[in-house]
Amino acid sequence: MTNQVENVGRGNVPGLQPALGVAKDQPAKWQNFEKKPISLDVACGMIRSSHAADGERDDVEIPDLRAWAVIPANNVLALAPLPFPGVRPRGPFPLRENAFRQLCGRMGAPSDYLLALPAKLQLACANYGMTKLADRAGLVRLAGSEARAIVSDRYAKLDDEIVLEALYDTLGRLGLAQSIRVRSLATGGMTALRMTFPTEAIEVKRDNAVGDVFEYGLDITNGELGARSVGITSSTYRLVCLNGMRSWKSEANMRFRHVGDTGRLREAFLDGVPIAIAEARGQIEQWKRSIEMLVSDVFEEIETLRAFGMTASDSRSVASSFAMDNGLRLLPLKASSEDISELLSEASDPTVFNVANAITRTAQLHADNPERRFEMEEMAHRYLTRRVGHAVAVD
Hints:
Layout (H helix, E strand, L loop, with lengths): L4 E2 L15 E2 L5 E4 L7 H15 L2 E6 L5 E6 L2 E6 L11 E2 L2 H11 L3 H5 L3 H13 L6 E6 L2 E6 L8 H14 L7 E7 L3 E6 L5 E2 L9 E10 L7 E9 L4 E4 L7 E3 L7 H27 L7 H6 L8 H14 L11 H8 L7 H12 L6 H19 L7
Antiparallel strand pairs: 1-2, 3-10, 4-8, 5-6, 6-7, 8-9, 10-11, 11-13, 12-13, 13-14, 14-15, 14-16
Helix pairs in contact: 1-5, 5-6, 6-11, 8-10, 10-11
């Protein structure tokens, strides 16, 4: 399936051929299953369907990229082998944005700059860079006829199918395959499964909250494009507002890079899944303790999150979420820092719980960017850990 061409259009110089674009990457999609969580079998089927819709998966091993060239193909930059007598050529393979940026990274060339040049200059610069590559061997990962990634020849193909098989086998051995449910699913450049145990939900009691129920579980993440390892991360899920929180930093978190023997993945899952589940139980204890911890200055509390990498825009969104969750008036669009501080000061007995929940609620705004959503959820856990201490697992 060929994706829509993405052309930045900045190389349109009078008298010169317009800039060639790149094909769009597989779009990121985040799905919540609010009314009824789905089984792992159903979630796996949805991931496979997403792959099929994006294009049939295939790989092309290239011993030496210098024997290939960047050429135009239907107004898109494409990768094709140089013609050799008696050799049946493959391609051309239109370059998706991710693959183009990876190729430019190998060349040491700025991808945005190349995309802004007129076509002839694009091709001349790209092909000159191809002749100077130091890391020459590569693996082109295809979706249909398009190159979705260009990775090292040492890249281990820990694709979603392998990860899902290892996960299912692990949960089966632990006797958890039937009780675990998928609450959220992300597909695109990253695949993610947020799984919880509804049968072991825990009520976190607050004065004005009825049925404030948390579920604990784990996130399984993977990337097939050379940018993300296989990951197991402990997480919690608050049913009343569908907020998730991921462990920021813990020995329970596992990262399995796409290198070496893929057979080691099953062993890693057998070791990592039980630890992550125990850690997730401890996160609920953190939520419970945070209810008793009052915050003297909500605005200042939110501003400290900038040290964790939160943007000014996200800080404002956290303030808006806090105001909404605590029955305050809406935050004016052009409110100054003084106005925001004054509004937040009207909250009655604000707690660390309120601030952490505002962060996780704000994370939901990044449904089209799962990577950023996870970063925000990890910020929430980092904040919670700093304020109430490390998790204590529940027996």
